[in-house]
Amino acid sequence: MEKPKRERHPFQRYIWNCFLLFIPIFIWNIALAHKLPKAFQPEIFWNKIPAFLTYGENISRVIIVTIALGMPLKVVTSLQKKGLFLYATGALLYFASWLLLIYVPDSQWSNTFWGFMAPAYTPLLWLLGMGMIGDAFYFKLPFKRWYFILAAIIFLGFHNLHTYLIFSRTH
Fold it and tell me: What does the DSSP assignment read for 89-121?
């Protein structure tokens, strides 16, 4: 006897979207942000930041998350597989940059420009990976990878400028 097919909920297909790739990053940030050096804590990191920088960073962050929600998550093509590899590599480098700041905050690396800034610039890799994975939208707009990648670059511009401002104040 053949099993009857289960009917899928109409919204079930929307669950597998590129937003899922943000989840490990969000969990990492929430779990470990309080362990970062003092300069990264909200009372210093968000203190006296120009409004254009705060708004630009946060609005562009919301835009990339929103775009990711609209991109189905599937890894089928060669480009998508390369994107997944770039995402995973970038996420590991991002995590490593945090661990260095948390566990060896007084090291020469952690106190250099490149070491301090690493959590701000390493997302370029995992965000580009996400941009390579996405190849369509759920809604009726023509898909162009540059929508997500441009929004990510704008976000990273604001985020890196913000982090540089803190570096210049604290070092």
Answer: HHHHHHHHHHHHHHH-TTSTTTTSHHHHHHHHH
Res 6 pLDDT > 70: no
Tokens (6 digits) for 28 = 């990492």
* Residue 35, amino acid: K
- The model's pTM: 0.91
CA angle, 34 then 151 then 101, to 5° = 25
Residue 124: which of 96, 99, 155, 103 has the closest Cα?
155
End-to-end CA distance of the chain: 72
Token pair recorded at residue 167: 């570096």
94/71 Cα distance (integer angstroms):
23
Contact 107, 115 (CB under 8 A): yes
The whole-angstrom separation of Cα 34 and Cα 167 is 18
